[in-house]
Design a protein that fits this description.
With about 350 residues, the protein is α/β, with parallel strands linked by helices. It is about 40% helix and about 20% strand. An 8-stranded mixed β-sheet has the order 1-2-6-5-7-8-9-10, sandwiched between helices. A two-stranded antiparallel sheet has the order 3-4. Strand 1 and strand 2 form a beta hairpin. The longest helix has 17 residues. The protein is globular, with a radius of gyration of 20 Å.
């Protein structure tokens, strides 16, 4: 058994090497073993964690071919600029995409195959799509295509410290203030007219979507794809799944404390990352899409959340990395829900 555990640990360390953060992880382990500064090092690893690359998913040339226009919005009172894509409604008669998401034994193929004749109506308005932790706006482009096909224009921004948007990570909380300012600017410029506004958030982006909905009175609804649990729980869940041996070496309390320290350094309170507490008081029409196989954002965490304005849809066999992409199964739930909000 000891020999098998060593082999498993070596395999996980090889996996870290491909992630380019091997040295930091090994440093965390060694410090956790010999000192009491483990949580501080975990916090630093969270802060310095690099974004996943989108180049194996889509090229910049393909993004342009699909009609996404890249631009940025710079806030007037500081130097922060938000990079985002804009996409107008599609007029094509068909929409087809197939995305392979995840890795190893936790890989999903998400497909969509739609014909315009299959839609009962053409929708209108604006959809803002928000990505998750360590990803970028490019990871939301398939779902953006889907909403463009339905008839919406889309806005797909990078969160702070992600993709092409500068600044330090704000873990979905303060991001809401900047994205809210972007929406205000687009309303003032007439890009977003007096029409339906929806926000779609994936994982960490779901937290941002929830915060924005509490700041505005003109949001018709929010769609939360595998919404992130409270940040310390999310970090611990991720560690258990991707690096189970390491999560056994490093005590759970230190992992959770490291997550809290990272938040405090960004002037974020842990309670402000708890989506459920916001949903319990929110009156915004909300669709939650969760998977029975997602261990980062477990379906069980939300299945008891019963309110008239909240609908929960469960998919089967989907792992967390694939939940940012809407497929044929989710399409039926989205259409049914949209028809209750327009």
């Amino acid at each position: 058994m000891r020999h098998m555990n060593k082999l498993q640990l070596l395999n996980e360390l090889k996996q870290y090497k491909a992630n380019s953060i091997l040295i930091r992880v090994l440093t965390v382990i060694s410090i956790c073993i010999v000192t009491s500064a483990c949580s501080q090092r975990i916090a630093s690893s969270i802060e310095k964690a690099e974004n996943f690359s989108f180049v194996d998913r889509i090229t910049t040339e393909r993004i342009e071919e699909l009609g996404f226009k890249k631009t940025e919005y710079c806030l007037p009172d500081n130097k922060k600029c938000i990079s985002y894509y804009y996409g107008s409604p599609l007029v094509d008669n068909n929409l087809n995409y197939s995305a392979t998401l995840g890795r190893g034994d936790r890989e999903n193929i998400v497909k969509i195959n739609l014909n315009r004749d299959s839609l009962d109506r053409r929708y209108h308005g604006t959809v803002v799509l928000l990505h998750g932790f360590r990803t970028s706006k490019e990871f939301m482009l398939n779902s953006a295509l889907y909403f463009r096909f339905l008839g919406f224009q889309v806005i797909v921004p990078d969160l702070l410290g992600h993709g092409d948007t500068g600044g330090k990570k704000k873990y979905g909380v303060d991001d809401s203030k900047y994205i809210n300012s972007l929406i205000d600017n687009l309303v003032e410029e007439g890009v977003i007219k007096d029409e339906n506004i929806y926000i779609v958030g994936s994982s960490l982006g779901a937290l941002t979507a929830t915060h924005i909905s509490s700041l505005r009175s003109d949001i018709n609804g929010i769609i939360l794809l595998a919404p992130m649990p409270q940040f310390d729980e999310a970090v611990y869940n991720y560690m258990k799944i991707d690096y189970p041996m390491l999560s056994r070496i490093i005590p759970e309390r230190d992992i959770r404390k490291g997550a809290v320290i990272a938040l405090k350094r960004a002037n974020i309170d842990l309670k402000d990352t708890n989506i459920q507490s916001f949903l319990k008081t929110s009156q915004t029409p909300t669709l939650l899409i969760l998977s029975d196989s997602d261990q980062v954002s477990p379906y069980a965490n939300y299945q008891q959340l019963k309110k008239d304005n909240i609908k929960i849809f469960k998919v089967n066999g989907r792992y967390h990395p694939s939940m940012n992409t809407i497929g044929d199964v989710e399409h039926e739930a989205v259409i049914k829900w949209l028809n209750t909000t327009q």
